[in-house]
Amino acid sequence: MKRLGLVIGAPFAALSLIGLAAGDPRGAAELSRADAICIAAFLTAVGVAVIAWRGGGARSGWWLPPTVIVAISGGVCGWIAAAEFTYQPDVPVRLMQMPARALYMVAATALGMALPALGLTALASLLTPRGTART
Fold it and tell me: For the whole model, what pTM was predicted?
């Protein structure tokens, strides 16, 4: 349960900080600012994947790249889904004007990062033979 809370709580906290500090990349005045926001979210997804990979049972290192890929893909899918479900995919989220929508966007993106990574690491734990060393 501790691992689940960490893997879900870490991206939620990181994405909240990114949103508070930099905002929505769709509302950025400059493309370089939008790039910086997206790179920060990308690094958050990589960090979530590493936490999920290291947090469980014994598994080999070759499970890390697929875990990173599913965390990044899940984060992007969560963000896109949240933007589409609000029926305003082209309107940037403003925290002061739409706090519930901002929370929904952060939650969907964080869960999109965390849940696929957790699922893959759980699968890796099932497929890794018992008694093998961590590499």
Answer: 0.83
